[in-house]
Amino acid sequence: MNPLFPRHFARFPLVILTGTLTLICSVRHARADDYFDPHALEITSGQQQASDLSWFSRQGGQKPGRYKVLVFVNQTQVDSRELDFIQRDDQLVPLLDVGYLATLGINTEAFPAFAALHEGDTFSEPGKFIPDASVKFDFTNNRLDFSIPQAAMRQKSRGYIPPEQWDEGIPAAFVDYNLTGSATNGNHLHNDDNYLNLRSGFNLGAWRLRNASSFEFGSGQHWQTQGTSIKRAIKTWKSELTLGDGYTSGEVFDSFQFTGIQLASDENMLPDSERGFAPTIRGVAHSNARVSVRQHGYIIYETYVAPGAFVINDLFPTAQSGDLEVTVRESDGSERKFTQPWSAVPFMLREGRLKFSASAGKYTSPDAEGDTPNFIQASAFYGLPASLTLYGGAELSNHYQALALGIGKDFGQLGALGVDTLAARAQLPNNQQAQGQQLRAQYHKNFATTDTSFDLSSNHYTTRDFYSFSEANDYRDPDSHVENRRNRTTLSLTQNFGAWGNVSASFYRQNYWNSSAVDQTVHLGYYANYKGISWSLGYYLTRSSDNDSDNERSVNLSVSVPLSRWLPGGTTSYSLVNNLDGHTTQQVSLYGTALADNQLSYNLQQGFDNQARSANSNLALAWHGGSGSANIGYSHDRDNNRLNYGAAGGVVATQYGVTLSQSLGDTLGLIRAEGASDVQIEGATHVHTDSRGYAVMPTLSAYHKNTLSLDTETLMDEVDLEQNSQTVVPTSGAVVLANYHTHVGVRTLITLTWHGRPLPFGANAFVSGNEEAKSSIGIVGDGGQVYLSGVPLHGTLHANWHQQGQTMRCSTPLTLPAATAFSPVRQLAATCD
Fold first, then answer.
1. Which of 113, 140, 286, 700 has the most Cβ atoms closer than 10 angstroms to its Cβ?
2. Are 552 and 535 in contact (CB under 8 A)?
3. DSSP letter at 24?
4. Alpha-carbon distance 421 to 403, whole Å?
5. Looking at the whole model, is its pTM more than 0.85?
6. Number of helical (H) and strand (E) elements in the chain, helices listed first
7. How many CA atoms lie within 13 A of 305 on its CB side?
8. If we measure between CA atoms, which residue out of 161, 294, 196 comes closest to residue 648?
9. How many Cα neighbours within 13 Å face the side chain of 369?
10. Which one-letter DSSP state was computed for residue 353?
11. Neighbour count for residue 832 (Cβ, 10 Å)
């Protein structure tokens, strides 16, 4: 025998012939579709049998079970979740129920066939209930596609998320802290000041308990509670209920703090295409046409319409004004264009939208001697046709009554105008009756051709006896109170010059009845940027009714230059302030970031004051991590030396333990990836899992889809993830759980035998360890070999397979060999009994 031709290769023609005859004999009758006889796999070894692989015998066949899938409805992803799948007609089909179809936006109430189902009943063919509906599972891409006739879908705005998908979160308690302090030495004096601000909360279901407190310590000690409240969302009314301490809405009346109850609209519950104000576009299509809407040259909306009149009323609010260019492209390729200018003042709403706020309780006075009467306040806004918004409100108390009524209108090319009137009557502590009226006008216009934005707001008080609710309650001595307002005017103008920068101007003036006192602020500024170098020049004029001195004027100049070519992450800047009276201060700074992931930030400053003829120096360092931030700084001038320090972060406690965090926002995400330590969270600066595999996403967008992804490049070799991304839709204030299934252990190639023969081909195998540790599930291949990841060092191997209609099982204790430097995959043989 030729040594280059091994002996077992001599049997190769016989194996081929035997295999061919086996395949031919296995065909008992003709088949119209692709079919693979799993018994053919048994020829790979004279000893190894095959498990029951009938699931895989047809194209696309897979094993029934529970799979995490991406759910699409009419080619749009709407959900991501685990569903149960069963075998039917040689394919996997999902087990569905009526409630789940409703969460997908399907109008199940419109189809009587669903009424015959009982609670808990499942089905796999939506086409039996909805004509022309179907569902298809793509196992390779973990994708479940529903095809549903448009008439069977609930009409919904772009970005709509059904309330059934909103996640109230898990029970949780948290504390957000911010500590600042300083130690000052100078002029034979020493002073320590420390301030701790705490914001804490507890979540249970839809209820949110919140508290805000502060503690001052150092020279003295003082604890203060700013407020405690209980909140929850009222989904049906798209609103939020607040019990306890809160603030009234400031859109119609001046806002103030109170203790009581409030029910107010929460626009966060609306899709973006229903928030705020955007114009309604109307037009006519002569065929099946494509309608495109552009603003500033960019397409912001595109849809397809049938012949006839069309209406577009779900534009996203992109700005307060601007020209919209509408293009109607007919099926024959012809195009028609028209421009729709629009503007809005801040309170305007879309047609048919209602926004409200109602509060009742006891007024909280910032003055210890002020009155704290009971009150009721309500306000409402409603969007009317023709780009009109009507609004009004009432404020009632024993000694105070006020009514308000207003209207806003988009005049297209002429801009947007809002006018309202507020009449108030108050009984002051000296039994003096005060009655007055406020007239207000707001105007906004954007000139698209010149890229100019203009805003004007004017308030006029018809008599000196007009008081807001807060002013009336805090009124004490008629001879010492602040003069009543007479007129207040605010104006702002912004002009953009493209690459040449932009200019802004603002003006504010308020005068008073029976007084020459005036509050006034004027600002002119120019801002520009060229190749990363930015500069600004500004002029300020300030005049205060509390200051009898002359107007304060100043000119400011600032320039910043990036130093990335010489100092990565570094920038230097220079600023100058001159008050036009010979007093000049100058400051030179060097600031930037350093270390991995830019966790360290620094700022060095050197300043000089020509009037005091003194210099000042400042050095500040800050560290930013996933568990919080800390900072320290030192400053020195002619009179004082000061050490500043601070720390900020959060602590979140749940059923899974305590997790440290960065400073917390209102809505949080808890990432749970057991055993996957120090894994970076994509899109979150400095956020990574702790030693247990937990992390807090400190800010999520309420009532929106938030995608939380783990960076697999930062996973340890011993950790595998079943999926690295999850989508959550939290309610306001929720702590939602993003649970990632991990397999923590080593990668292993195991050769298994059973009764002296290789374990059957196609058997399932996995290894379990202590504390619910479990490897991935592998399928036994040729020669009884199976590859598993996440295998614990000590555990029990389990295998199961189907044989002659019976489920067979075996198990064996398993201890992995030591790792070698040549392969990250550990190999061993085991006998399964």
1. 700
2. no
3. H
4. 8
5. no
6. 3, 51
7. 22
8. 196
9. 4
10. -
11. 21
